[in-house]
Amino acid sequence: MPNENIIHVKFEKKEGLISKENLLNLELQFLNTLKLIKEYHGLRKIELKKRIEINKIIKKINANLNKLNRIMPKLKNKKSHETSITYSFTQKTKEDGLEYQLEEIQKRLKAIQARF
């Protein structure tokens, strides 16, 4: 039975060399991809370690802040300690500029009409 389904394909020497070259290039690309994947996994491990360290630091900071909030005296009247700053501006907006420009244009129109 194994001899019945055997198919033979004949390649010329040039076709065989091109096929081998293509196969070797494919292997090279495959190995480079594996190398990149290993580097990626290594970097992900480093990133995970850094994230865990940062998380621990944030937890310590939160614990210290909570401890500090418990130690600090409470304010009875928060409004008296808040500073409120009010600013008063006289608004010279575009409207003032527009009004001035309208007056100037009206003066010019009057001057032109006076000529005729």
Please give a handful of descriptors for the protein shown:
116 residues, 73% helix, 0% strand, 3 helices
Are there runs of 5+ residues with pLDDT below 50, and where? Answer: none
- Succession of helices and strands: HHH
Q: What's the main sheet like? A: none
Number of helices: 3
Oligomeric form:
single chain
Average pLDDT: 83
What class would the helix/strand composition place it in?
mainly alpha
* Count of individual beta strands: 0
Q: Whole-number radius of gyration?
A: 41 Å
> What is the distance, rounded to the nearest whole angstrom, between the alpha carbons of the first and last residues?
116 Å
What is the 3D form?
flat
What percent of residues adopt helix (DSSP H or I)? over 70%
Strand content: under 5%
Describe the structure.
This protein has 116 residues and is mainly α. It has a domain at 11-73. Helices cover 73% and strands 0% of the residues. The protein has 3 helices and no strands. It has helices spanning 13-71, 78-81, 94-115. The protein is flat and about 110 Å long.
What would you say about this model in short?
Helix content is 73%, strand content 0%. It has 116 residues and is an all-alpha fold. The relative contact order is 0.03.
Give me the secondary-structure topology.
Elements: H1 13-71, H2 78-81, H3 94-115
